[in-house]
Amino acid sequence: MNNSNRGLRGLLGTAFFFLPNLAVAEASSQALDLSGHWVGYLCVGLFAIAYLLVVLEEVLELRKSKPMMLAAALIWVAIALVYKDQGLSAVAETAIRHDVLDYGELLLFLIVSIAYINAMEERRVFDSLRAWLVNKGLSYRQLFWVTGILAFLISSVSNNMTTAMLMCAVVMAVGKDNPKFVGIACVNTVVAANAGGAFCPFGDITTLMVWQKGIIEFWAFFTLFVPSVINFLIPAAIMHFAIPKAQPAPIHTQVVTRRGAKRIVVLFLLTVLTAVGFQNSLHMPAAVGMMAGLTYLQLFGYFLHITHRDEPELGLDPMSGEEAPDAGGEDSLRFDVFHHLARMEWDTLLFFYGVVLCVGGMNFLGYLGHLSEFLYGELGATPANVLVGLISALIDNIPVMFAILAMRPEMSEGQWLLVTLTAGVGGSLLSVGSAAGVALMGQAKGIYTFMTHLKWTPVIALGYLGSVAAHFLINSALF
């Protein structure tokens, strides 16, 4: 091959690499500011109504994905009609394709992560951990700290809701005769789970979004470790004195993990390393690395299938906590990767789709540009980023963070880390501020309530402010 052909192919490769970004940049430059147009007002109204229905999900018994997905469709239909009338249909098409691509990458990443979590749950990894903690015979205060620390650590690689529910199960099993302890321990678990997800890209969807956008390198997130620890420790240290010193009644339970449980944990860690390698070393989307990691689970599932041997299936007796024969029989022992994929939290994932397209529509209409000018132009980056944490206590942090990424304000790395921290831990201020809090209100119904959590909000706020101060002090070089 001669040098001219090689040069031509190199130029074509470079052009194709930059073509999507150039198309998005061109679409942005041709976008119409419809923030003062009746269509803009209509779209804001649709988004507001959809979000109100999401907030009332428990009352209406209407899945949160339904109103959000419908609002997303209607918003973009309205946008498309205006742009078609102006002869700019291609501009709107390019913009929505960009939002769908953003969602697609996150969806693939989350599908693999949740598949591994479901597989570990089916292999009884979490049941085994729960039984181990219950059998330890810890005092109430010891259990308070152990569940909090484990929630902090586990949520850095797992989602905060799963982690919080696991620790809540332990707390309720041991503290069933002491509702006061269960309530305070649940508050501590929510704070710990949210704090643990703030310093690792795999710990929370908000950190994942920032990492996948390439704004912050993977290892840079770990500079938030100490601020996250402080966010957890300050309220925990104060709540410690409200925990009774008594020893709960001993409980004896036994859980045997299913074949391959430990190896699946190792494969999950290997998948995480693969995703990091794809993003950092190969400069490819982390989702591609995660999908490669899914093949590890698929191949291991095939190995379990061809080496399957009949063995009695044991389940947990819900009354005694002891293992008992399961009516499911030997078939329930067979490992099926696609079964774990089917058990995804599809309502949450589809809600996320609606959020991404709704917020993307608000940005395309021009509203986020005006909001960015106010927050980061008039208020300044630090007040705006601290305010984000307070907003995320009232509104889900996913749309809040996606809106900030859509605004893409000019900020230092330190400020991007600050908003990642505040968006992640700000939800701890109220029980409804995070998925972990909402899940535990259902799991410990009547014991852990909105008011139970609200009682400790001033203490949690001290931890919030302490984590912000620690970030400025420790990571001052990044500002």
Automatic annotation (TrEMBL):
Q: How does it sit in the membrane?
A: Multi-pass membrane protein
Q: Which UniProt keywords apply?
A: Antiport, Ion transport, Membrane, Sodium, Sodium transport, Transmembrane, Transmembrane helix, Transport
Q: Where is the Citrate transporter-like domain?
A: 51-424
Task: Please list every transmembrane segment annotated in the UniProt record, as residue ranges.
Answer: 37-56, 68-83, 103-119, 140-157, 218-243, 286-304, 348-366, 386-405, 417-439, 459-478
Enumerate the subcellular locations listed in this protein's record, separating them with semicolons. Answer: Membrane
| Major location (coarse) | membrane
| Annotated InterPro entries | Cit_transptr-like_dom, NhaD-like
Q: Which family does the record claim for this protein? A: Belongs to the NhaD Na(+)/H(+) (TC 2.A.62) antiporter family.
Spell out the protein name for this chain: Sodium:proton antiporter NhaD
**Organism taxonomic ancestry:** Bacteria, Pseudomonadati, Pseudomonadota, Gammaproteobacteria, Methylococcales
